[in-house]
Amino acid sequence: MTKNTSCPQCKPKPITVTQYKDGQWAVHPDVVSIEVPVTLHFNNEPTQLWAWPEHLEDLVAGHALLDLGGGSMETVVEKVNDHEFSVTLGEPIENDLEPGKLHGAEMLAAMAKFIDEEGQWHGTGCFHRAGVYDAKTHTMLHRTEDIGRHNCVDRLAGWASRTKTPLSGLVLMVSARVTASLCAKALRAGYKFIISRSAVTSASIAMAQEHGVTLVGFARDQEKRFTVFHDLQTPRVLT
Hints:
By secondary structure, the chain is of the alpha/beta class. It is built from six helices and 14 strands. The strands form four sheets. It has a six-stranded mixed beta sheet with strand order 9-8-10-11-12-13. Strands 4-3-6-5 form a four-stranded mixed beta sheet, covered by helices on one side. The chain is globular. The two termini are 29 Å apart. 39% of the residues are buried.
C-alpha cells in the first residue's frame, strides 16, 4: 500500500500563511501539497495530467487504460524524464470475476481502516484515496492517494495492470463522491462493487442498475452507517 512518501520532491511544501479564525488574525506555518504537470504519450498523442509526483508510472498506465482506450490489459511504461512517460498496451488480462460478499460490520471496519491509515490524506487536507478490498480474503490489497479523485482510480488500474490483478474480483473503495464520470471509469476498470465514504449521484445509480454493479455510499464507521443505493437480487451486501 502507499505510505507516507520518502520521495523528496513529493513532500508537502512548507509555507507561511495568514489565517483568520475566531475573530482573530494570525500568521503561522503551514504545508501545501505538491502538484506537478505530467505528460503521457499514447498512440503518438500527448496528454497532460496534473498529479502528486509519486508512483507516476501507475498513474499514466491507468489513465491510458481507462481514459484513452484499452480496458484491462498489460501495459509497458517507458520513462522519458521525471514527469514524462510513454505507454503502450500489451496482452489482455482476464477480468470477469465475482467480487464476493460483505457483511455490514466488515464493510464499515474496512472503510475505517482505509480512511485512518497513515498517508498524505492527513497532512494537507488536499488528497483523495482509492483502494481495492478482497472480500474473499478480508484484506485491503492496495491503496492509492492523489489530489484528483480520478487519478486515484487511474493509479489502481495501473497497479492492477502491472501486477496482472483482475479488478472485477475486488471491491473498490473511494473517499470521494461517485459521480457519473467516476462511476463510468470504475466500470471501464471492471469493478462490480463500489463503496464510497461520500455521496453518489442519480446518474451513477442508473449506471449501477444497468450494469449490475453494487453501489454503496456514505460508508462511515464513526456514524455506524452506510446506504445501499443498488444491489442485486442475490445481494453482495449482507446483513
